[in-house]
Amino acid sequence: MIHVRMRLIGMTFGLLALAAGTASCSSGQETASGETTVKKSGTVKIAYIQKQGDQQYFVDQANGAKEAAKGLGAEVTVFDVGEDADKAISAVDAAIAQKFDAIAVVVPDQQIGPQVIDRARAAGIPLLASDDVIKDGSGKEAPFVGFDGTMMGEQVGKKAAGLFKESGWKPEETAVLSVTKLDLSVCQDRVGGAWDAFQKEGVTGVKKIDLGADNTVTGAQDKAAATVTANASVKHWVVWGCNDESETGAVTALANAGYGAEDVIGVGLGAYLTCKDWKAGKESGNRAALFISGTEVGKSAAEALVKKVRGEAELPPRTIAKTEMVDAGTWQQAGVVCT
């Protein structure tokens, strides 16, 4: 009987030891909130899913992520899904199937937030939103890396107001052309912030024309051309938009319509396109731009995801990158990559 008891006690300790050994090899640990922190010591594979991957901002972003990853023992694979929301969802599925360790996503449409978040969550893969905020089905935001849209817009509006005051233009002869993607909340934050700041600087009597476009140069140029024709009585234009593409496209349309550089105040958002005229020494309506660095956003995203996968830190709820206003005399010193 004593021998039987001793054998049972030995088996019990053996099972406990096995359980402890299994736990020590686990790929994760439970946090106080119940969330699993991934722990991986090998190469961390990150999928960076981007909309409009051919735009310079997103090219810089991808390069920044790759550069940061290389120094952290990680690697980044970029998926360019253009403006196709279905491709973005498929890219998330592909990243899961290919066993990527983490995902950063710039969605073409914020409405797919619940789908991409739920897919990654079900697969146990950390995901953060880059540039555009997305939410899950309950309305909770995914961890975010990018810019504060309202603050960006306020800087653009303040600069535009200052340039308008310096111009000596009459308010009744001037119009603001605000070019944006109407179904993208970050765009509404930017142009809304610009208009609020423009007015807070004491500018009154200037009408605003809201123009919906697709955040591309040609899209903005085509839409602006028709708007300018329909408002031929306007002598002077203040232009801003959701991005550099929107602003420079509209400024080009004004130039094609016969408006000289002296009659246009364009303040870009990005600086990677507005700087083209400055680089060429060309007089144009592109007077200034808010420099936003895609490189820094990409680096921040990669660093946050690697820390998460390594089990070193949870994903920060919001990581906001710095911005800087530049013009023809300061863009090079600021480090703008001019395309």
Automatic annotation (TrEMBL):
Sorted alphabetically, the keyword list is: Signal
Instruction: List the PROSITE patterns.
Output: PROKAR_LIPOPROTEIN
One matching Pfam family is Peripla_BP_4
Write the signal peptide boundaries: 1-19
Localization per record: Cell envelope
The UniProt entry, under SUPFAM superfamilies, shows: Periplasmic binding protein-like I
Q: Please list the residue ranges annotated as the Periplasmic binding protein domain.
A: 46-312
Q: What is its main location?
A: other
What name does the UniProt record give this protein? Answer: Sugar ABC transporter substrate-binding protein
- Taxonomic classification: Bacteria, Bacillati, Actinomycetota, Actinomycetes, Streptosporangiales
